[in-house]
Amino acid sequence: MRIIKRAIAGTMESSDIQIVVEAGQGIEIELKSSVEKQFGNQIRKVIRETLEHLDIKDVKVIAVDKGALDCTIRARVLTAAYRGADIKEDYNWEVIN
Amino acid sequence: MLGLQLEKKRIFLDDKEEKRELEEFLNTQNIRLDENVEYTVGVFNGDELVATGSLSKNTLRSIAIKPEYQGTSLLNKVISHLISEAYQRGNTHLFIYTKPESAKSFNFLGFYEIARVNEVVLMENISDGINSYLKEISTQTVNGKNIASIVMNANPFTNGHQYLVETAARENDALHLFVVSEEASIIPFSIRYELVKKEIEYLDNVILHKGGSYMVSRATFPSYFMKDSQEVVKVYAELDLTIFKKYIIPTLNINSRYVGEEPYCEVTRTYNETMKRILEGNNMRVKIVPRLQSKRRAISASFVRELIKKDEIERIKDFVPISTYEFFRSKDAKDLIENIRSNTGRH
Predict the structure, then answer these.
(1) pLDDT of residue A92
(2) CA distance B344 to B162
(3) How far is residue B262 from each of residues B48, B271, B282, measured CA to CA in Å?
(4) Nearest chain B CA: its distance from A53 CA (Å)
């Protein structure tokens, strides 16, 4: 899957994460989190794994996290990625599992 | 504040009652209602308005949270909502004006400072936004002792613009010419840019640039495109020129900015006066060039548009270079002329 435009999913409300994806080179993740010290690496890992599941190789992700659980992070990354790839059907929801 | 029944609702400014309530709310916090917004959201606790924010294209405006509710997640709620709304409207590079004491809160929400003047901070939602623009223009750096700059809208390109460009090109080793790229003028950027390009091709020390988001744009100088009070115009002008001074000048080693004298438009005149005040000094000067005259009047793009509006295309010949004239006589200009005729906006 290829990211062709800047897209967003999620919010900056408590327990959520705002994910912005845009075209990039390689996978680059810029993270701002209220729990950066404790969970920064884990959040990055979940984002990266979700992207890899979708076979996205070139993307810049800007994430603003407000304490989201892993399942929320996956769902938000997935939605932002589909929007950024301009795909509107045949979603592969498998990656959430 | 847990257990509040908070509800998000769109506020319509056409509705007098809703508008009055919003204005009163903003007034209590010394924030003015921006008349140029196209989308406003309110968060209500029951019937009471407790937070609000608005959108004007790619800028977030008039954001306020009731003091008792500050420090809760209401700001996050409002900003998240406005960001999603802006994305849905196709605007993804977003800007926000805020007070210095709030800059930190917005940084936690993914906004980064570009510049600040007199209690106003301009922020954007991309961490390397301005740097990537600077990287782009820096590929066109030229060496020389005297490097000039001009920022113009060229709506459309006139003999006056031509004269200004020629003067700056002649008096300097090189000239960086920026054409305002905001699509807020009646003539689309692509046409304005092409007409400038055609007429300056013979000047080999002129480097043409796209103005981008950081000079005379909706974000940096909205008053150019929308009506604002004189006081507000000044603040925006300071902001726009501070960005030019802080980022553009050092990137391209510019040491002068040329501008046409402004006999007609008050907004542009304020902008020019502010330019002298902010930019001059430290090996940088501002040169205000008297307007070129034709038929005993100073040439201006607004007068040219006025003639087009009155269906007197032939008369523009005295005020514009040949390629602009030929363009407006061509078939390609048909729709545009129609638009100019029905246009009531500033530009």
Answers:
(1) 74
(2) 26
(3) 48, 10, 25
(4) 25
Neighbours of A89 (CB within 10 A): 5
DSSP state of B119: T
Measured between CB atoms, does B127 come within 8 Å of chain A? yes
**CATH 3.40.50.620: which residues of chain B?**
139-342
B92 touching A (Cβ < 8 Å): yes
Query: Is residue B307 scored above 90 in pLDDT?
Result: no
CB contact under 8 A, B77 and A11: yes
Q: Which domains does chain A have, with CATH numbers?
A: 7-87 (3.30.230.10)
* Contact (CB<8Å) A34/B80: no
B84 contacts in chain A (CB < 8 Å): 8, 11
Q: Tell me the pLDDT tens digit for each residue of B184-228.
A: 888 899 999 999 999 999 999 999 999 999 998 888 888 777 777
Can you give the pLDDT at residue A75? Answer: 95
In CATH, the architecture of B6-127 is 3-Layer(aba) Sandwich (3.40)
Interface confidence, given as ipTM, is 0.81
- Closest-CA residue of chain A to B110: A64
Buried b (16+ CB within 10 A) or exposed e, B34-46: bebbebbbbbbbe
Please answer yes or no on whether B92 and A66 come within 8 Å at the CB atom.
no
Instruction: Please give the interface size between A and B, counted as residue pairs whose CB atoms are below 8 Å apart.
Output: 43
Q: What whole-number distance in Å separates Cα of residue A36 and Cα of residue A26?
A: 22
Share of chain B above pLDDT 70, in %: 98
Residue B1: is its pLDDT beyond 70? no
pLDDT bracket for residue B141 (50, 70, 90): very high
Other Cβ atoms less than 10 A from the Cβ of B231: the count is 7
Provide the chain B residues 240-299 that lie in CB contact (below 8 A) with chain A.
none
The one-letter amino acid code at A27 reads: I
The predicted model scores a pTM of 0.86
Pick from B79, B126, B127: CB nearest A12 = B79
pLDDT value of position A79: 94
Residues of chain B with CATH 3.40.630.30: 6-127
Q: Which residues of chain B does A20 touch, with a Cβ-Cβ cutoff of 8 Å?
A: 92, 125
Give the pLDDT of residue B2.
53
**Answer CATH for B139-342 from 3.40.50.620, 2.10.109.10, 3.20.20.100, 3.40.50.300:** 3.40.50.620
8-state DSSP, B33: P
**What does B79-99 look like in DSSP terms, one character per residue?**
HHHHHHHHHHTT--S-EEEE-
